[in-house]
Specification:
With 293 residues, the chain is α+β, with helices and mostly antiparallel strands. The protein folds into three domains: 89 residues, no CATH class; 83 residues; 100 residues. It has twelve helices and six strands. The strands form two sheets. A four-stranded antiparallel beta sheet has the order 4-3-6-5. A two-stranded antiparallel sheet has the order 1-2. The protein starts with a helix and ends in an 8-residue tail after the last helix.
Length: 293
């Protein structure tokens, strides 16, 4: 009865953790519970706190999901503690594992430091001229894996007013028509997107349409305006330009990829220079000492 009542009236995370605390610590002594009210469960000398549990759960879960995920997390935490304790006592190569952990830790710290330096120095040094030059010199590397389009998309309920007039506006991309559509969309459209000046993924745009186009590229070759409808909505798509799969991606669309590739190219040279500078400086300062055999 208590669990049902809490599920029906749950509002705060604290109620969940309080419920779990009761079930898990029913056999714990009152003195231990008073030591730290933030603790949920103890296994040996290890504790799991409410704060740790709270930070491990996704936000905005409903009551039932929160309880289930909390119980699952606590059970997994207990299992990990118990398994680790047994494994640590029974493995024969703990020294080797410690060396691997230390090696991984060093590699991770070095990697984080290198990425920090790259982001601080290289990202700021690259300007639009660098990007344009790199793109022009490597244009064939930026091939489209899906078709792109420019245009305007409108989705309105079947019960929306003036459908015929809207259809007429949607077939045009004149400033007057666009202005009328924008004003109309404020009150009536479920989705309105004007991308006459920017490329978008055609396949992604029509993913939720009521019709599955078997050959999207043929559709683009033969149509500048598409219209579909289902029981609930009309879909209007005005296509002002398109690029097919395999074409060179336009610079403005590929710019993010161009920047990443250019940074990576310069990163290799930058890190080699960094390593050489550190080595030569350490050698000069006497930090490196070679001993003869």
């Amino acid at each position: 009865m208590l669990l049902t009542h809490l599920r029906n009236n749950y509002r705060y995370f604290g109620l969940i953790t309080a419920l779990i605390t009761i079930s898990l610590l029913a056999v714990s002594c009152k003195r231990e519970a008073a030591i730290n009210v933030d603790m949920l469960v103890k296994v040996g000398d290890k504790y799991l706190s409410r704060e740790e549990l709270k930070n491990s759960l996704p936000m905005y879960l409903n009551t039932q999901d929160s309880i289930l995920m909390s119980e699952h997390y606590i059970r997994m935490w207990i299992n990990d503690v118990l398994l680790y304790d047994v494994a640590r006592k029974n493995i024969d190569n703990e020294k080797e594992i410690a060396q691997l952990v230390d090696s991984y830790r060093k590699s991770l710290i070095i990697h984080q430091y290198q990425e920090q330096l790259v982001n601080e120095k290289l990202s700021r040094e690259i300007d639009n001229q660098d990007l344009t030059e790199f793109y022009n010199n490597n244009e064939n590397q930026f091939k489209l894996e899906y078709p792109l389009i420019k245009g305007m998309f409108l989705k309105i309920p079947t019960g929306a007013p003036n459908i015929e007039q809207v259809r007429h506006w949607a077939k045009s991309t004149t400033p007057a028509s666009i202005d009328k559509i924008e004003k109309y969309s404020v009150q009536n459209a479920v989705n309105y997107d004007n991308f006459v000046n920017g490329w978008v993924d055609f396949n992604e745009l029509i993913h939720n349409w009521p019709v599955d186009y078997a050959n999207p590229e043929e559709i683009l070759k033969n149509n500048s305006f598409l219209e579909q409808h289902d029981d609930n909505y009309y879909y209007f798509l005005n296509i002002t330009d398109y690029l097919l799969t395999g074409a060179n991606a336009p610079f403005e669309y590929a710019q993010t990829t161009v920047r990443e590739m250019l940074i990576n190219q310069r990163k290799i040279k930058f890190l080699h220079t960094l390593e050489d500078d550190l080595y030569n400086k350490a050698l000069k300062n006497g930090q490196i000492v070679f001993y003869n055999e």
